Each structure stands twice: as structure tokens, then as C-alpha cells.
């Protein structure tokens, strides 16, 4: 055995030491790149074996002879000392293949198609624990967390095609729901309140684990409960209570309450939140139960429900309503969704059957992790258990149950020890109550009068023999520790020929004949045979109550004669293993996240067996076995913490030759331990030898209980907490293994198929397309088609081979090099030929797709169910209290199942084939991803409040410096950057002939700054990048020229009169040269068009042209530049816009698309010089296709700033709401294009990093107006999250350079209740506006005609918002405006942190509405109730922008404030005070505005010397 000396090196310090393993090629003549080697110490063959891959063989290797060098971090992790001798040998990758590997990633968004690409990239590579993986093509960073091979955890191994890769995210969206049912106020066995156990115990531990693992989840914490009212009819309730009442199946009235404690927050330390939860707890029950109490009003008695009766499924659906919209508000710093319900109950819930089916379908289809954590004691039957509402009240009706496999169950128990006992009760003890003796006797008599044949007679029964059989050691393959003597054969429901009974000696049971009852299916997955099945039932009507033993002290569970229902399988919660269910794709959807245990079945590591010392210990390790005997030495090295266990990794390598499992917490029975001694045994053999169900499509049966369907439930199973799932939740796996058999496909599915010929399609489109784009190859189209299905929740189906002799199932990619464009293990073996042949199988729910690639033809075959489930819709009303709200407000949502079979895959596939052509636009139904942003100017006033602690927040209109020009130029520069345009200007400055300011717009890395001493407006020439300055420090307010009052934009109405007057008197004459062009000539008054045109074309002094760019003609400029250029050179007040329009009509210039019908629109709109030398080498003709041009380039009209290029009369400074004819509300009414938004094609992969063809679309406002928010939305399906993120963060940096900020905003900022796609736990805050502040109660706007008053009210509200720094947002109309629909206007704060909405329903706005309760007005403020005659209140809806990153949100803490008050909360508080007229602020504002109007009238009067004053 050859020994090598081991050195270590640090990666990166030396080019030749850049790999994990460096060796001397002369020592290893047979070694080649890609080989896997095993390294271990010679004296410790059973110790740690490290596997590494040879990634490079360098002839100039620096290692000496017989020396190998490994990376120092790996050496430390595997305890390998430098300069020690080691054995190194090349191994067969198949021997060290991993069954599954877990990879964690943090603070990034990884879509499912990226996961698939990463899996392909990792195939045939070697990994070790904590290895950092950088996939540069996709810009993905992740780390290896845990690996399993042949039933045990290992420290290193090779990823093959068959390795299941589990992705776990440390930055997920986590919803924690605390069920505040009546048990929360009960005490547990240790004397703690269950609330204390949940918060001080479970949550504290959970948050500590998060901190230890460095998780950065975005968390929402909600307390929820259900209140029952003791009432027989609706008439017993006062009117204010009726909005939200619901009735259950027993006719009881109830109301559900949700208290949102934390909303979308990230914290480094969550323990501070616990105090907040404790505070809420003290008042929660009283607040909820007495919520409706009013003086002199009787309301029905309210009681809090038990956990069993609570709103458990509703809560899951509420989180699903948010999770389903993940593609609308995409963020790039988190992946994954998890909802956790923490209940004081025991995991039994009484539920509605329809709602169960909806919940199950939605949770499975959406791939959302749902965890249930019970802090109650674990019962003696299988849980989680859903008991269906039994609407049939006859005595013979049996209770029906479901064991949902789609809920991951944990039981939390504290580590407290009781001194006098180690016994832990598994049943909650009933309350002591004084019972009448006669009752007891009656009960006893009934109890004993049961059929005596059910009892075990002493004479016939040998107890000792029975006990022997019970407690004998089990055969090793079994997973349960206690079994009945004679256990009935495990039969699956469909195989029943006749009624099935237990056949035990002492039971002689007779079936009770009852009429067959028609019932809905309890679970679509349970196969419904033609015969019934036995269910052993309890003698109580409500099993769940007897299980919880409430008031049932004397009731025993006895085996009465079973009730058999023909045609239905009933589940016995005490013995669920007797029913196996037909395997379906839903059942196997999550199974690939579970590792295979030693017996070859998939295991969940937090379910473990409590066992006697001599029997078989636990199937899984990783938990402290509280019930294990201390004499069982095999379990002594159990750890409390998964993380600790993780540090002391298994010391076996994958190939250690003889090592028993005892040290791994898997003690096998003695007779079986030698079976695993040779590690080379393949798992297939393991499975057969251990007699384990090998679940394939042929033997399609699965246990009812448990997430894996392969672990059998026995009474001895103890469930701990699945900390891993709660800390680093797994993403839905990209592979599954269920595909229906041929018979089932034929009988139960409808088959449809279509073919795609990408090459032919591209050929057709290449001819008709104005803009050439590189088409996707057939293979790329095929990969993209698969990617899209994965992204929409499909999974690749890995089909196991039937004959072991046949080729491996990845024949197409078995030997491919990592990262090559080969496929994964979902590829079926196909006939080998010279051309490409691939086949992929995918599934979601009951929908299967087969995508086959043969040569240049792609065939898509779809299988959808012949009998789809009917769509179900549940309407749900509830009350919720969000942070900063003052009351529990009414809301309503719909829970619906989505019909996945209706997804338009054909459209999507053609969209991919044509590379996003306009013929196949992205439709709402395609669920494309989007990222919505507002471009807002940076505002200096915020600093005044945050840094200098300004007490009032209505200061945003105080500084009346007009920087419109600056804003526009910065905007133009930013859009040029986004459009990737460069200038070809090369000019000389007049004062220094040698200086060239050749500036390229894009990709320029250096920032050329201006000389510091250069003045702002008096320089003869401003160095420019095209049309404006380069970024430099913004000048202070005093340094700017004072504008004339006409520059005050419409949105700043209430400016101070004195300031305005001062501004008017100090107007600096505008310097004609301040446009950045060297002014070489001034045109005379009678200059002709041709003269101007020639000057414009001048290469140095003319309008700046763009450099050659595909699809732009040569000599292209933008209209804004031309207008400003003309403005600087015209002397006699001729209108530049008219001159350009005249040039267009004379055919001197034309729109850059070549369309003569496009008029001149001022703004960022492209035009080109028509009269060019066609033979010049850089001549490029226009596209002559307007729609293709617009799809290629952003064109944006400028509004509200025409004074920049033409002197206009000064607008009045009278506030809009007091003018005779108010200015229009927004540019929507008078923009040239008549469209609010337009879409253009967007190349996403600007840095050419990705290995996939990436593109998307950008939707943008057609108009930019200073003082308004400008909207940009990036939309994509064929792009990778990290690449899109890269593009957008680049834009954000550029916006910062240009004095703007690009803020992400939600698709639905207000999240109003009762609206589709609204977030159920978010809602606007209503802030009423006091309108009775005038003396003597006079009404506002009395002096104006009645029909204009409602609009004036809106303008007043707008003026108030402007004072607080809000800017209007122009929205697309979702539907055509009907007459009776309220007008509504939305505003965003200049920081982007909050939104406001004002709405005017009619002209008759109501001043006060005392008849309605405050709380209802809040939620239904604009008539969401069914009653349309509700008077409307005047006010604002205020909402927070939850898309702003947490750090940025918390950064706005006000300096020197007492308790670190946030700027956002201070704004809300101050806004509320202003609107309620505290300190007469509103009245003063009104008086001030009236004063401005009076002065203006006087000014007009003096100017005109006229008797009739007018307002312009």
C-alpha cells in the first residue's frame, strides 16, 4: 500500500494551487481529470475517509514526488494533519454514490428551473460536508449540508444521476400562526401554561436555532382564534355584529379573529419579539370575547373555542392566498414558503370536508411546506387527525377521519424533569367534577351490558403466552416494537371481496346491517372499492373529545360490534396501518426530500420508537430518546440537537470495509448487523433483504399515515420536533417517482399531444421579424420547455428500471462531463442514434406531460384526468387586526382550487419557440414573474426629519426650488443607460481647444467629474454626456438659481406667500448657454428651416447623435435634445416644437422607426435625419416597422415641463382646490399616446453570464412628468432569478447616480379587503379627515358650484398629501370606468415607504357617519358592505410598502428619538394629527390657502387694472 505525504494549501494564493486536490502526475500515470480518489490515514482504516475529485492535472505541479496537497479548510474539517502519511487510491464513483444530498442557500432567489440546472451542473462531481458551491453561470452560491448513502449519513461522496438533491433555504417566507384556543390558558403536566410552553419553550428554542444556523427568514406572526356565540338566531345579534358572523354545521354562530403581531420582518435576534407576544397574550382573550360590547346593548355570550373546534384549515388557506401570488411580488433575496401552526391541542381537528379537499389540493399543488407543532401531549392514536363534520345525526352514523400526509407534524415537549417520576402521560387528564352516584351506576351497568363475547374469558385465555408473544424481540425488518398476536393481513381497500373482519380467537363479531349512506369522498386518494371495511369504533359520538378525555372520565373505549358501511373505507385512528392506499403522484410529491434509512425505507428523522432494551432500537437517530432504557448502550451517543449531531459526523467513509452501525444510533438486531457490514451492498439488495416495500409504479401501495408513506405508524412511535424543517425548510423537490401504469393511463386519462418544430418556426419569424435575434436551438427549446414546467410546480419523474440488465436510465447523460448540456435522470433510455433523442416525464397533481425530442422535432404529450375534480369555492369572512391598526377589521376572501389542466401550455411553448415574439404575448394566466418599481426623485426633506429631528412632517412643500430641468436631464440620462445607448459626441470646449469630452454613455467605468470651481449656470460649456452633466454632488439649495413662481409645479399648491414673492422678485435671467451644447450661432429672426436643419446636423455643434446600434437608423437623436438645442439658439420666441414639426412635414426628419405618421412628441422619443448619404459606410436605414421599433426601445413623452423649451405664462400659485377651473388630475387625460403603459422587449443577461438564453419584457409609463412617480415593471418567464436580480440592482445603482431612487413596490399596494389577489392579512389603515373645522360649522367649498365640490375635496386631500411628501401614481385602468364607480387616485411617498389612496364615490360626500361603528367604517370605508346606502366618510387609505428590504426600512430611525422611533411611524402619527386638526393645523392650512388666493386676485387686479378680476 503506497503512502503519500500530505501537505495543505490555501486556494487562490497560487495559480497552480487553485484546486481542492493537487498531486504530481508522475506519481499517478493512470489518473485523469474527473477521477475520484479516496484519502485516509493508514493506521485508521475505519476512520474518516475523504473523497476528492481530480479537477486538474498540472504538469508543472509544485508538489514533490509522493506528495499530495489538499485545501487547508478540508484538512481541518476531516482532521487530517499536515506532513502525515496517508493512503490515496482511485475509487469507482458508483461505489461511493450518494442516495441524497441536502444543499442550503441563503439570501437569494433560486427558481425551480435554476435548481434543475444546478443539479445537472453537480452531476458526476464529488462533494464533502460544508463544501461551498459557486455556480457562476447562474450566479448561485450554496453549501453542502448533509449527505446520505446506503442508509447512513456520510461526510463525502459523489453525486450521480440518481442522487436526489434537496434544496433548503435559510431565507424563506415564514408564517407562524399561534392558535389562541381555550387550552392556551390551561396548565401542562409541569405546571406551565400552554402559552408559556409555546412561547418561552418552543419559539425561544426555534429562534435560538435560527440564530445558530444564521437563518434570515422573513417572518409574519399571527395569533388566531374562533369565538362561539350562544345564540339561536341572527336576530339576537345587534346590527354591528352581523357583518362577519358565520354558521357551522351544527348551527352555531361563530366569528374568527386574527391578530397580526409581526408582519414581514427580518431580525438578527428574534427574542425581543417574545416580550411583545407575551404582552398581547395578557389582553388577547378579553379583547376578543368582549370586542362587540357596547354600552346599553346586550350581546350573546361569547366563548373561546377549543383547539379541535378551531379555524385550523382556514389559517392554512389564508397563508396559501399569499403564497400563491409569489410570482406577482417577486423578491430576489429569499426562496421558499413555510406556514407553521402552533397549537396547544393534540393534533385532532374537526373540519369541513370540502375545505379539507381544497386545502389539500392547494398545499400539494403549490408545493408549500406546512408544519403543525403541537405543544399538547401526544395522544395514543395516529395524528394529525382530521375528523369530518358529521352532518348525519342518526345513531348508526360513524365518524369519518382523514390522516393528512400533507401536514408535517411535530410534538414539542420541554426537558423539565419531575423528581418523583419519569412517567409522561400521553392523555390529558380530565377535570375533576362531582358526579351523581346514580349516574355512575347507570354508566357502569351500560358498560357491562355489552356483548359478553367481546370480553376475554379467563378460562379460555392464556395471558402469559399472550404477553410472551407481545414482548418477544421482533424480526429485524419490522419497524414497530409492539405487535398484536394475530394481526389481520394488511389489505388494501380495493382487494376486499367481502366484508373484512378481525379474526382473533376471542372476538366473534357480527356485522350490523345498516343502510348504505351516500357520503362525499373523504380523500380523493383513497381508492373506493365496492365493499366496506371494518372500523372499530368507540362508544362515544365524538371520538376527538373522548381522546382528549374531556368530561369522559368513566367512558372506556370498548370494541362494540363494528359498523360496516358498504363502499367506504373508514379509518381507525388507533390502527391506521390496516388501510393502505393506492399510490398517487400527490402522495409521492414530497418524498424525495427524505433520506433512506438503514432498512431502505424513506424516513422522517423526528419520528422515533421507544423500545425495551432487548428489542430493536429506533429507525432514526438525531433525537434524544426520552423513553429509551438507560441500559441500552447503543443509544448513549444521542444528542439533543441536530446541529450538534451534525458536527460529529459519521466517521465511516462510504467504503469502509467492516463497520457495524452501532455508533450511528442505528443498532440493528444482532442477527442482521452483519448484513450491513459490507458497505458495498447496494440498496436494491438491501430493500429486498429487509423485506421492505419497494414502492414502484407496479406495487403501488402506501401507508395512510406519515409524510413518507413508508414508515409504519405504531403506538410506540414518539414524535419529536422536526427542527430542520422549521429552520431551513426544504423547497419542493424537482424529482418524483410516480407514473401511472398503462392500464390506468388508458382508463383514467385523456391524452392530447402537439409537435413543435423550432427550426421551422424560427425560419418563418426570421423572415417577418424586423429585428434579428439569435434563435434558440431545438435542444435549448426542449430544455426551456422542461424548465417552464418545473417553474410552474411540475416535477421530473425518475422511473426505476424494470430489468437490472438493461442500460442505466440516464443513458443519454451517463458519462457527460459536469455542466455540459446533458439531461438529468428523468431521461428514459431511448434508441441510440446519431441524432438527439431525449424523453422527459413530468407531473403535477393528476396531470402528466411527456416531452420527447427526436432530431429537430419536439413532441409534447399531455395526460389529464378524464374525471377532474369539480372546482370548489369557499367564501370566508373574518376579522383581523394588523400592526398600526386600531381595531379588528372586517375582511373576506375566497379559497378556491385552481384548475391546473386549463393552463395554456401550447401558448407558453410557442412563446419560447419564437423567443418572446409579440404574436405570443405573456398573458396573466401564464403566471409570469414580475418585479414592479417606482422611480422617485431623492428628497432632501426626509433628512431634515430623520437627522435633525424636525417635529412636524408636513414640510415637503417648504423649499420651493425648481429643479425640474435637473430632474428631466437626470431622467433622460438614466433611460439612456437602461436602453444601453452610447453617444458619439466628440466636441471641443471653446476655452480649452485641447480638451475632448468624448464620453460613452454605457459601460464607462470612470466618472469624469467637473472642476470644482466651475459655477452652476455661468459656464460657457458644460461637459456633458449627451444631454446633461455627469454625476456630481448635488448643490445645496442656496446655490441653485431661484426660479420664478411659475415653476412651482401643480403638486405644490400651498407654498408660503412670502417665499413665493421673494422668489418672484429674485428671478435670475435664464442663461441661454446652459444646455450643455457649445453655442456657436444664434439664429436670426428670419432663419429658414433649412439653415437650422444644417446646423442641427453639424457633427460637433449639432444635436448629439447616438452611436450605431442595432435597429436604430444612423443619425438618430431624441426630441428633448433637439428642443433644448433649438431653444438655446432661437431669439425671437419661435416655438421649437413647431419648428421640429415643420421639419418633419418637410421630410427632413422622421420618427426613427421610419413611420412618417408619427408626430413630434417632446421627450425621450427617437427621430432621425432623413437626408443622409445612403452610400456612407456607417449608414443604417430605419426598420420601417413602428410596432417592432416600439417593442425594441423605451419611448417616453415628457409632460408638465414644456416651459423648459418655450417661455409660457406663469401659472398661478393658488392651490388647485380653490381655483376657478382646477388643473387636471393626471397626465392620463392628455398624453399623446393615449396609453398609460407600454411593453418593450428586454435583454436580461446584460453581462453575458448565463448559460441559457435569457430575455424578458419591461412595462413602463408612456409619460414622465416631474412630481409624479414613474413606473417600471420587469416581466419574465425565461430568465433566472439571480440574473434578473443582477440587472435590476444595476439599474438601482444607476438611478442613485442620477439623483433618483428605484423602489420596489407591490402589485397591489393597498391590499384592500374583498378584492381578488389581495393579501388576506394586510389591509389599509383608514385615516379620517376632519371637515368640520370652519367656524360656525360652515361647509367647505360652499362658494363653488355643487357639482365641483367632490372634485375639490379630492384636490384638498391631494394638497395635504403633497405637504407630507406624497407623489401621484398614474395607474392603468383595470376595467372600463363605469359611471357609478368611485374615482380613485393613488399616491406614493417620495421615500417609497408608504402609499395613500383617496377615493370619491359621489358628489354628495358625507361629513360624518355616526350611525356606523368606527370599526366597520374602517374596513368598509368605501362601501364594501352589501348595503350600498352607507354614508361615505372623507379620508385617506394608508398602506405600508412591504417590498422595501427590512434593513432599509429600519435604517430610517430618527436621531435622538426616545425609543428609536421609525420615520415611517412618525409620519403616520403626524399625518393623523394633521387630519384630525390637532393644534388647528388643518384650519391654519385652509386659512393660508385662502390668503394665497386673495393675494393672487389682488395681484391680477392690479396688473389688469380691470373691474373684473380673473384667475388664470
Textual characterization of the structure:
With about 1500 residues, this protein is of the alpha+beta class. The chain has 30 helices and 53 strands. Strands 14, 15, 16, 17, 18, 19, 21, 24, 36 and 37 form a ten-stranded mixed β-sheet that branches. It has a six-stranded mixed β-sheet with strand order 2-5-1-6-3-4. A six-stranded mixed β-sheet has the order 30-32-33-34-35-31. Helix 5 packs parallel to helix 6 (about 355-365). The relative contact order is 0.08. Mean pLDDT is about 75; it is low at about 440-460, about 475-565, about 610-700, about 800-835, about 985-1075, about 1405-1430 and about 1505-1510.
Quick one: how many beta strands?
53
Note the gap between the termini. 100 Å
β-strand amount: 15-25%
Low-confidence stretches: 442-460, 474-567, 612-699, 802-834, 986-1075, 1403-1431, 1507-1512
- Overall 3D form: globular
Percent helix, as a range, is 10-25%
Report the biggest beta sheet as strand number plus sense, adding barrel if it closes.
Answer: 10 strands, mixed
Any idea what the radius of gyration is?
37 Å
Task: Estimate the mean pLDDT confidence.
Answer: 74
- Count helical runs: 30
- Structural class comes to alpha+beta
Amino acid at each position: 500500500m503506497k503512502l503519500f505525504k500530505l501537505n495543505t494549501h490555501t486556494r487562490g494564493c497560487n495559480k497552480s494551487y487553485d484546486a481542492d486536490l493537487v498531486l504530481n502526475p508522475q506519481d499517478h500515470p493512470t489518473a485523469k481529470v474527473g477521477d475520484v480518489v479516496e484519502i485516509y490515514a493508514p493506521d485508521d482504516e475505519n476512520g474518516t475517509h475523504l473523497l476528492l475529485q481530480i479537477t486538474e492535472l498540472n504538469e508543472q505541479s509544485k508538489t514533490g514526488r509522493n506528495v499530495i496537497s489538499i485545501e487547508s479548510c478540508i484538512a481541518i474539517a476531516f482532521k487530517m494533519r499536515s506532513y502525515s502519511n496517508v493512503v490515496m487510491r482511485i475509487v469507482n464513483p458508483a461505489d461511493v454514490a450518494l442516495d441524497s444530498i441536502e444543499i442550503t442557500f441563503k439570501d437569494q432567489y433560486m427558481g425551480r428551473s435554476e435548481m434543475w440546472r444546478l443539479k445537472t451542473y453537480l452531476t458526476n462531481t464529488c462533494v464533502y460536508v460544508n463544501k461551498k458551491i459557486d455556480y457562476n453561470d447562474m450566479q448561485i452560491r450554496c453549501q453542502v449540508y448533509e449527505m446520505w448513502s446506503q442508509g447512513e449519513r456520510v461526510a463525502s461522496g459523489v453525486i450521480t444521476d440518481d442522487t436526489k438533491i434537496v434544496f433548503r433555504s435559510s431565507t424563506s417566507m415564514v408564517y407562524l400562526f399561534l392558535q389562541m384556543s381555550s387550552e392556551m390558558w390551561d396548565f401542562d403536566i409541569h405546571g406551565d401554561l400552554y402559552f408559556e410552553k409555546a412561547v418561552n419553550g418552543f419559539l425561544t428554542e426555534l429562534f435560538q436555532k435560527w440564530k445558530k444556523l444564521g437563518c434570515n427568514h422573513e417572518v409574519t406572526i399571527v395569533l388566531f382564534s374562533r369565538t362561539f356565540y350562544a345564540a339561536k338566531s341572527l336576530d339576537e345579534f345587534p346590527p354591528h355584529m352581523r357583518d362577519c358572523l358565520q354558521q357551522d354545521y351544527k348551527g352555531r354562530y361563530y366569528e374568527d379573529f386574527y391578530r397580526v403581531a409581526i408582519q414581514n420582518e427580518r431580525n438578527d435576534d428574534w427574542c425581543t419579539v417574545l416580550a411583545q407576544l407575551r404582552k398581547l397574550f395578557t389582553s388577547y382573550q378579553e379583547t376578543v370575547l368582549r370586542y362587540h360590547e357596547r354600552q346599553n346593548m346586550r350581546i350573546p355570550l361569547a366563548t373561546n373555542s377549543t383547539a379541535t373546534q378551531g379555524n385550523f384549515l382556514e389559517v392554512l388557506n389564508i397563508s396559501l392566498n399569499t403564497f400563491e401570488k409569489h410570482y406577482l411580488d417577486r423578491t430576489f433575496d429569499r426562496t421558499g414558503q413555510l406556514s407553521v401552526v402552533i397549537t396547544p391541542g393534540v393534533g385532532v381537528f374537526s373540519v369541513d370536508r370540502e375545505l379539507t379537499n381544497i386545502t389539500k389540493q392547494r398545499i400539494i399543488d403549490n408545493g408549500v411546506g406546512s408544519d403543525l407543532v403541537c405543544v399538547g401531549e401526544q395522544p395514543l392514536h395516529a395524528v394529525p387527525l382530521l375528523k369530518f363534520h358529521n352532518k348525519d345525526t342518526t345513531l348508526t352514523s360513524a365518524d369519518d377521519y382523514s390522516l393528512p400526509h400533507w401536514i408535517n407534524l411535530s410534538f414539542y415537549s420541554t426537558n423539565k424533569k419531575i423528581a418523583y417520576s419519569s412517567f409522561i402521560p400521553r392523555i390529558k387528564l380530565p377535570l375533576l367534577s362531582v358526579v351523581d352516584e346514580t349516574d355512575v351506576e347507570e354508566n357502569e351497568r351500560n358498560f357491562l351490558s355489552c356483548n359478553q363475547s367481546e370480553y376475554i374469558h379467563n378460562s379460555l385465555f392464556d395471558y402469559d403466552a399472550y404477553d410472551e408473544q407481545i414482548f418477544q424481540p421482533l424480526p429485524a425488518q419490522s419497524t414497530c416494537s409492539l405487535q398484536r398476536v394475530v394481526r389481520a393481513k394488511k389489505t388494501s381497500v380495493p382487494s376486499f371481496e367481502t366484508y373484512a373482519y378481525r379474526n382473533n380467537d376471542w372476538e366473534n363479531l357480527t356485522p350490523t346491517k345498516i343502510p348504505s349512506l351516500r357520503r362525499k369522498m373523504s380523500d380523493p386518494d383513497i381508492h373506493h372499492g365496492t365493499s366496506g371495511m371494518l372500523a372499530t369504533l368507540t362508544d362515544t359520538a365524538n371520538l376527538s373529545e373522548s381522546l382528549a378525555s374531556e368530561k369522559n372520565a368513566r367512558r372506556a373505549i370498548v370494541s362494540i360490534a363494528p359498523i360496516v358501511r358498504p363502499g367506504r373505507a373508514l379509518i381507525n385512528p388507533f390502527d391506521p396501518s390496516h388501510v393502505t392506499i393506492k399510490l398517487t403522484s400527490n402522495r409521492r410529491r414530497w418524498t424525495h426530500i427524505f433520506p433512506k434509512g438503514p432498512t431502505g425505507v424513506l424516513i422522517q428523522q423526528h419520528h422515533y420508537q421507544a423500545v425495551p432494551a432487548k428489542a430493536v432500537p429506533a429507525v432514526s437517530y438525531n433525537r434524544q430518546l426520552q423513553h429509551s432504557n438507560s441500559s441500552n448502550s447503543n443509544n448513549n451517543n444521542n444528542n439533543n440537537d441536530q446541529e450538534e449531531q451534525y458536527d460529529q459526523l459519521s466517521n465511516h467513509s462510504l467504503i469502509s470495509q467492516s463497520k457495524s452501525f452501532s455508533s450511528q444510533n442505528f443498532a440493528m438486531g444482532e442477527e442482521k448487523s452483519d448484513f450491513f457490514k459490507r458497505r458495498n451492498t447496494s440498496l436494491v439488495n438491501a430493500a429486498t433483504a429487509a423485506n421492505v416495500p419497494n414502492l414502484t409504479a407496479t406495487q403501488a401501495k402506501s401507508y395512510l399515515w406519515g409524510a413518507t408513506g413508508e414508515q409504519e405508524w405504531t403506538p410506540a412511535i414518539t414524535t419529536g420536533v422536526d427542527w430542520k424543517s422549521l429552520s431551513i425548510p426544504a423547497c419542493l423537490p424537482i424529482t418524483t417517482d410516480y407514473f401511472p401504469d398503462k392500464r390506468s393511463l388508458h382508463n383514467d386519462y385523456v391524452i392530447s399531444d402537439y409537435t413543435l418544430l423550432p427550426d421551422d418556426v424560427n425560419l418563418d419569424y426570421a423572415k417577418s421579424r424586423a429585428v434579428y435575434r439569435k434563435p434558440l436551438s431545438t435542444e435549448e427549446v426542449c430544455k426551456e420547455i422542461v424548465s417552464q414546467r418545473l417553474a410552474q410546480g411540475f416535477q421530473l419523474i425518475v422511473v426505476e428500471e424494470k430489468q437490472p440488465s438493461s442500460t442505466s436510465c440516464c443513458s443519454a447523460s451517463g458519462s457527460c462531463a459536469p455542466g455540459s448540456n446533458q439531461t438529468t435522470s428523468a431521461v428514459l433510455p431511448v434508441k441510440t442514434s446519431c441524432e438527439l433523442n431525449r424523453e422527459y416525464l413530468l407531473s403535477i397533481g393528476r396531470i402528466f406531460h411527456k416531452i420527447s425530442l427526436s432530431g429537430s422535432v419536439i413532441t409534447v404529450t399531455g395526460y389529464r384526468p378524464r374525471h377532474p375534480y369539480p372546482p370548489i369555492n369557499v367564501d370566508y369572512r373574518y376579522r383581523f387586526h394588523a400592526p398600526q391598526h386600531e381595531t379588528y377589521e372586517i375582511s373576506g376572501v375566497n379559497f378556491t382550487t385552481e384548475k391546473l389542466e386549463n393552463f395554456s401550455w401550447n401558448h407558453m411553448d410557442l412563446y419560447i419557440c419564437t423567443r418572446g415574439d409579440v404574436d405570443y404575448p405573456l398573458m396573466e394566466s401564464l403566471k409570469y414573474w414580475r418585479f414592479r418599481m417606482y422611480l422617485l426623485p431623492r428628497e432632501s426633506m426626509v433628512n431634515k426629519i430623520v437627522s435633525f429631528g424636525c417635529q412636524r412632517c408636513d414640510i415637503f412643500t417648504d423649499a420651493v426650488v425648481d429643479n425640474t430641468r435637473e430632474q428631466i436631464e437626470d431622467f433622460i440620462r438614466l433611460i439612456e443607460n437602461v436602453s444601453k445607448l452610447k453617444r458619439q459626441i466628440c466636441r471641443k470646449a471653446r476655452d480649452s481647444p485641447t480638451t475632448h469630452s468624448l464620453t460613452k454613455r454605457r459601460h464607462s467605468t470612470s466618472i469624469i467629474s467637473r472642476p470644482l470651481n466651475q459655477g452652476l449656470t455661468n459656464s460657457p460649456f458644460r461637459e456633458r454626456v449627451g444631454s446633461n452633466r455627469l454625476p456630481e454632488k448635488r448643490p445645496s439649495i442656496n446655490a441653485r438659481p431661484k426660479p420664478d413662481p411659475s415653476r412651482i409645479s401643480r403638486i405644490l399648491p400651498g407654498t408660503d406667500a412670502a417665499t413665493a414673492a421673494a422668489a418672484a422678485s429674485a428671478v435670475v435671467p435664464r442663461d441661454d448657454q446652459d444646455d450643455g451644447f457649445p453655442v456657436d450661432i444664434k439664429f436670426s429672426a428670419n432663419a429658414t428651416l433649412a439653415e437650422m436643419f444644417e446646423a442641427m446636423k453639424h457633427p460637433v455643434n449639432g444635436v448629439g447623435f447616438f452611436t450605431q446600434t442595432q435597429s436604430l437608423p444612423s443619425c438618430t437623436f431624441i426630441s428633448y435634445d433637439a428642443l433644448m438645442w433649438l431653444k438655446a439658439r432661437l431669439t425671437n420666441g419661435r416655438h421649437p416644437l413647431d419648428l421640429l414639426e415643420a421639419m418633419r412635414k418637410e421630410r427632413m426628419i422622421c420618427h426613427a422607426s421610419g413611420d412618417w405618421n408619427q408626430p413630434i412628441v417632446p421627450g425621450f422619443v427617437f427621430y432621425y435625419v432623413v437626408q443622409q448619404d445612403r452610400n456612407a459606410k456607417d449608414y443604417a436605414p430605419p426598420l420601417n416597422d413602428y410596432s417592432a421599433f416600439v417593442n425594441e426601445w423605451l419611448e417616453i413623452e415628457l409632460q408638465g415641463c414644456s416651459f423648459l423649451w418655450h417661455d409660457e405664462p406663469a401659472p398661478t400659485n393658488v392651490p388647485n382646490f380653490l381655483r376657478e377651473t382646477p388643473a387636471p388630475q393626471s397626465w392620463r387625460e392628455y398624453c399623446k399616446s393615449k396609453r398609460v403603459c407600454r411593453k418593450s422587449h428586454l435583454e436580461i443577461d446584460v453581462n453575458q453570464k448565463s448559460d441559457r438564453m435569457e430575455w424578458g419584457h419591461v412595462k413602463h409609463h408612456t409619460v414622465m412628468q416631474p412630481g409624479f412617480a414613474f413606473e417600471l415593471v420587469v416581466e419574465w418567464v425565461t430568465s433566472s432569478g439571480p440574473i434578473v436580480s443582477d440587472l435590476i440592482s444595476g439599474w438601482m445603482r444607476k438611478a442613485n447616480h442620477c439623483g433618483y431612487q428605484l423602489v420596489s413596490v407591490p402589485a397591489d399596494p393597498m391590499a384592500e379587503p374583498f378584492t381578488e389577489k389581495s393579501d388576506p392579512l394586510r389591509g389599509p389603515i383608514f385615516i379620517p379627515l376632519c371637515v368640520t373645522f370652519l367656524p360656525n360649522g360652515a361647509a367647505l367649498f360652499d362658494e363653488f358650484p355643487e357639482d365641483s365640490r367632490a372634485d375639490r375635496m379630492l384636490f384638498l386631500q391631494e394638497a395635504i398629501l403633497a405637504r407630507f411628501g406624497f407623489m401621484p401614481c398614474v395607474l392603468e385602468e383595470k376595467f372600463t370606468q363605469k359611471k357609478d364607480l368611485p374615482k380613485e387616485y393613488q399616491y406614493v411617498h417620495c421615500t417609497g415607504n408608504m402609499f395613500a389612496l383617496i377615493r370619491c364615490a359621489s358628489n354628495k360626500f358625507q361629513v360624518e357617519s355616526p350611525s356606523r361603528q368606527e370599526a366597520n367604517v374602517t374596513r368598509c370605508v368605501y362601501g364594501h358592505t352589501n348595503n350600498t346606502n352607507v354614508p361615505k366618510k372623507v379620508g385617506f387609505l394608508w398602506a405600508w410598502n412591504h417590498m422595501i428590504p427590512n434593513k432599509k426600512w429600519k435604517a430610517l430611525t430618527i436621531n435622538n428619538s426616545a425609543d428609536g422611533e421609525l420615520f415611517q411611524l412618525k409620519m403616520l402619527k403626524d399625518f393623523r394629527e394633521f387630519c384630525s386638526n390637532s393644534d388647528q393645523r388643518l384650519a391654519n392650512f385652509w386659512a393660508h390657502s385662502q390668503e394665497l388666493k386673495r393675494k393672487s386676485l389682488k395681484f391680477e387686479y392690479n396688473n389688469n387694472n380691470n373691474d373684473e378680476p380673473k384667475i388664470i
